[in-house]
Design a protein that fits this description.
Strand content: 5-15%
Number of helices: 9
Strand order of the largest sheet: 1-7-6-5-2-3-4
Number of strands: 7
Structural class: alpha/beta
Helix content: 40-55%
Shape: globular
Largest sheet: 7 strands, mixed
């Protein structure tokens, strides 16, 4: 049996917990003053902390420290750009008879299903429109064949999948030119991530590694994560250099594990960016408990800390009571 004093102490703590719940409700229109909501908030907070503490390098990653870093932007400011290689070599087939392009499209469609609602995502494709005989001449249309198919914005799953499926293997591999465009695609603020899937190296005159180093030298918070799909040693070296220069990660992939590799790569980038929710959404924001991201809400942060403190005090008090009963 609990003593009267212990019962009063616990009742006081529960009353204080209810007051904190009311405080959290006042900080967000979407919060409700119920124990279920408080529990969900604590769980969401803990999950977010774990995600942000997760090292950026996933199984299969060969390089890059950037995915574990923290950007200058607040939660919810992260944006993602997927870059797809549509060059002629993507027509090669795997053991199952699929082209590399079909494998990459399958991986990206699967990824779209995994991304959170409201994720800020875009799609750029290179090598999809211009095909030349032999090596493309510097400055030719083939070397600038890169276009932003889906501008970065709130995720439209159906529209995004339609855009992914619209391409077939065709042209060259202007990676350097493409990297010159991505900074403009992603805007000028917040942590920005690029995930580039390619099966080959640069086929034009631009040096992707030099372009990546230039971007990094400009102080742009832009991290390029590269995936080499059954690439040669020179292509692997080039793609790894791009990742290293921008603080991203490099991953080797085959047609069998490409879907997992792409998912892991994006997961690392998302954890480092504390989510890609649209600004103004999420538990830490001023609009409720809908995931992570958004404009930081100091009141909600403070309420969460107080809830955790009170839960700890309740647990500590119960432990002491059990200890006293055991000694009695």
């Amino acid at each position: 049996m609990l003593s009267k004093a212990s019962m009063l102490s616990r009742a006081s703590a529960i009353s204080a917990l209810s007051a904190v719940t009311l405080l959290a409700a006042g900080c967000s229109d979407a919060t409700r003053t119920t124990s279920t909501t408080v529990t969900s908030a604590v769980q969401a907070t803990a999950s977010g902390a774990v995600a942000r503490a997760t090292p950026g390098t996933q199984p299969g990653s060969e390089s890059g420290a950037g995915a574990a870093g923290t950007g200058a932007a607040g939660a919810g400011d992260g944006r993602l750009l997927l870059v797809l290689d549509s060059s002629g070599s993507m027509a090669e087939r795997d053991a199952r008879g699929r082209t590399r392009m079909q494998g990459a499209q399958d991986a990206l469609r699967s990824l779209v299903d995994e991304l959170p609602d409201g994720a800020q995502v875009g799609l750029r494709v290179y090598g999809s429109r211009v095909k030349v005989a032999g090596k493309a001449a510097p400055g030719s249309r083939a070397c600038t064949d890169s276009r932003l198919v889906t501008p970065v914005g709130p995720l439209d799953r159906r529209g995004f999948k339609t855009a992914i499926d619209a391409f077939a293997p065709h042209g060259d591999t202007p990676i350097g030119y493409t990297l010159q465009q991505v900074a403009g695609d992603l805007g000028t603020t917040g942590r920005r991530s690029v995930v580039l899937v390619s099966d080959g190296e640069e086929s034009c005159s631009a040096d992707p590694c030099a372009v990546a180093k230039t971007l990094a030298g400009q102080g742009i918070d832009l991290h390029v994560h590269t995936v080499g799909l059954e690439v040669s040693a020179p292509a692997r070296s080039q793609l790894r250099c791009v990742a290293d220069a921008t603080g991203g990660t490099y991953h080797d992939a085959t047609s069998d594990d490409l879907t997992k590799i792409v998912s892991d790569t994006v997961g690392s980038a998302r954890a480092a960016s504390t989510g890609w929710s649209a600004p103004g959404t999420g538990w830490w924001s001023r609009s409720g408990l809908a995931g992570l991201g958004g404009e930081t809400n100091p009141g909600a942060v403070g309420a969460t800390i107080l809830v955790l403190l009170l839960l700890w005090l309740l647990t500590r008090g119960s432990g002491r009571q059990r200890g006293s009963q055991g000694r009695g």
